[in-house]
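name: query_chain
kind: protein
chains: 1
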Amino acid sequence: MMELQEKVLSLLKQIDAICRENGIEYYLTAGTLIGALRHRGFIPWDDDADIIMTRNNFEKFLECTRGKLPEGIVLNTQYDDPNLAATANHFVDTRTASLYRYDITNPERSGVMIDMIIMDPVPDDEEAKRDYVESLTKYTELTTIPYQYSLRIGKSTEYDKLLKMKDKVGMRRALDDLTKKAFHYTEEESRYYVQRFAGSPHFWPKELLGKPKYVPFEDTMLPVPEHAEEYTCIGYADDWMNVPSNGPTKSTHEYTVGSLTVPGKYISEDFESRVDRGEINKLFTKRKKIQVSLTDRKFNVALNSYKFAAERIKLLYKKKAKKTDYAALLEAKDYEALREYFEEYVNVQCTNMYIGSSSLEGWINWYRKCHPYLIDIGDDA
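structure:
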């Protein structure tokens, strides 16, 4: 393991000990889950860890840890501080530093951390799912100024109205109002869990999580969903067990500053002494107002560009079909010629812009994962 991964593992062990002692269920998720299943530990280039737990379990974890965590360890959550940017909760070693871009506008106690993502229950109802994603998007748009989340739903989140509501009633009340619209379904009325993370609000059938099962992870045992393989296929491509042949070899996280020896508060305090955070926030807010107002246009331009590329493939294969009798190739079992004939189509159809991929790779991939696009070159083909 890298030294950073050793730090992360020590935090995972602390969380696991708290959960075992208090009967709290949780699971590894995202790249940490893939690492457990594929590498029996961290993905070699990974630099963080992600876990999920249901809303009921997280609220129990919150109660068990308030005022009881060891020195240097904190739990950052919007339950306690509505001004935090991320909808994920962070279990942090404050003796280190891991500062992200969103910390510029909404600072939190930083350090090497575990993302603790809440799984909210949602009914098996398309309108309920859509309402959840829209409310979560507004919730995150309001708290995380540097990023634009309206693209997730393909329309404006009316950011101006959200800001006016926050200025009128305060951030806590504004978030509480959005919470009533999103995070209110009960376990009894719900068949799905959806992760409270606007970067990737995927829906999982509850039975895929099931009872946590402990698997080897580095030098310990950590819990994964009962049906971990099927669960992972929802968030990632079906070939997630294959190690990428040409990388990646490093994390894609947007650190601005990271240190295993300098506490994050020293860096934050130095930053505060050099800049006017209020002016920075005004600039970010002004930019976001413009971005969000253009969401419809930007969203449609992106989708139409992919439709244009699809039309090119359709025309190409319309011409190719006049020159090649692929039915005869099939009858002759000339599979090599068939593979060559369909290669360009397959290479385009199977890209993220048409069938999606892990939602963490960008909004268009998340949208396509939910709304895959078929480049139709005919049923015979």
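note: The mean pLDDT is 90.
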